[in-house]
């Protein structure tokens, strides 16, 4: 008798050619129409499933897990996993995995794109041109801040932060950083001689400050009015990390008052329903959470999530297991 395969939910639309290899291990339920499941729908879709591949849009908590006794693995294609309650996962013997490393370079590229666009006012200038307002050139026409030779500050010096720092070599920048723990001397050297400083010094000295730290209850509102008040009035703030790390209302007020020169934001509190007052500001560059969005990288993220669920189907430990304590349960 042929044994039936375990069931797997792929909760968002993904590259079908990448997913094809899953058919050897699982009976798949796809969502190629890319409908965003409500918590109730997600619960219903997960009934009887051994696993799920998802993105940051799937919120996994105790209330959900207690109703899913067959679930063994939740595998996000993202590196960030603030949508998973890891303690609840362990409690309900569910392995949680993410997709680290594969997006470091692409995300670092994008941090630079946002920093450069913000410092040199690219979006603002383009909107001006598109609106037909370009009548004459002027000496102070869209003057911005230099990147080369400036001081790059990085809050959160994990693998993405270090990839951002390495790029500073080509622009002759000085790099300073703050992180929960200091990097080793070798890592600092490789990160363009990054210098560890306390958070206050980082805020005071950075010409361009990039946020690259993971979101958690500890990093919630790491940047509020108090931190913005310490920054140079000529500085820019770039967030490619997560909404919630910045208090968006405080940032809006600082930008309105020109407390800092500008912000480049790929992530927002309550995205995709971000604060509408951002739209009225000229000194922001706004993008819809696309820092890792190159086709090659998005495919690599999906492949990493696939490798994690296949490991579980084979009875192996998934390579990117986040809650290792689940193995002792
Ligand atoms: C990540 O991988 O965490 C990106 O932000 C996409 O969600």
Automatic annotation (TrEMBL):
InterPro entries: D-isomer_2-hydroxyacid_DH, D-isomer_2_OHA_DH_cat_dom, D-isomer_DH_CS1, D-isomer_DH_NAD-bd, NAD(P)-bd_dom_sf. This is 2-hydroxyacid dehydrogenase. Residues 113-291 form the D-isomer specific 2-hydroxyacid dehydrogenase NAD-binding domain. The keyword Oxidoreductase applies. Keywords: Oxidoreductase. Its EC number is 1.1.1.-. It comes from Undibacterium danionis. It holds the Pfam family 2-Hacid_dh_C.
